[in-house]
């Protein structure tokens, strides 16, 4: 009878720890987020005023001589072997 009780107690402890540890991290994050000056959770829950605009790429600097990615058109440093945006091979 004793091994069944300890097995059940161990299972209960493992389940409690398995649930308590992740939930405590989430609760601690929410508490720290509420105490901070910038509320990161609310930034992602609210809709930005320019949410319907497409993402705009920064202008390419004409003075930098770089490799143009054949897949996405991103200008990369000539020493790069892979594109910094789509990770396609740029240089041979």
Poorly predicted residue ranges? none
Strands of the biggest beta sheet: in what spatial order? 1-2
Beta-strand content: under 5%
Write down the overall geometry. elongated
Order of helices and strands: HHEE
Helix content: 40-55%
The overall pLDDT average reads 75
Number of strands: 2
* SS field, number of helical segments: 2
State the end-to-end distance: 70 Å
Cα-atom radius of gyration: 26 Å
What class would the helix/strand composition place it in? mainly alpha
The figure for the number of domains is 2
Q: Profile the largest sheet.
A: 2 strands, antiparallel
Transmembrane segments: 12-32
Keywords: Membrane, Transmembrane, Transmembrane helix
Domain DUF7577: 69-89
InterPro entries: DUF7577
What does this molecule look like?
InterPro entries: DUF7577. Keywords: Membrane, Transmembrane, Transmembrane helix. This is DUF7577 domain-containing protein. The protein has 2 helices and 2 strands. It is mainly alpha-helical and about 90 residues long. A two-stranded antiparallel ribbon has the order 1-2. The chain is elongated. The termini are far apart.
């Amino acid at each position: 009878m004793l091994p069944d009780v300890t097995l059940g107690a161990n299972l209960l402890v493992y389940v409690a720890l398995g649930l308590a540890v992740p939930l405590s991290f989430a609760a601690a994050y929410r508490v720290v987020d509420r105490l901070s000056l910038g509320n990161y959770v609310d930034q992602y829950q609210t809709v930005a005023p320019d949410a319907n605009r497409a993402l705009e790429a920064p202008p390419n600097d004409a003075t930098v001589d770089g490799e143009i990615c054949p897949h996405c058109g991103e200008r990369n440093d000539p020493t790069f072997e892979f594109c910094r945006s789509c990770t396609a091979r740029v240089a041979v």
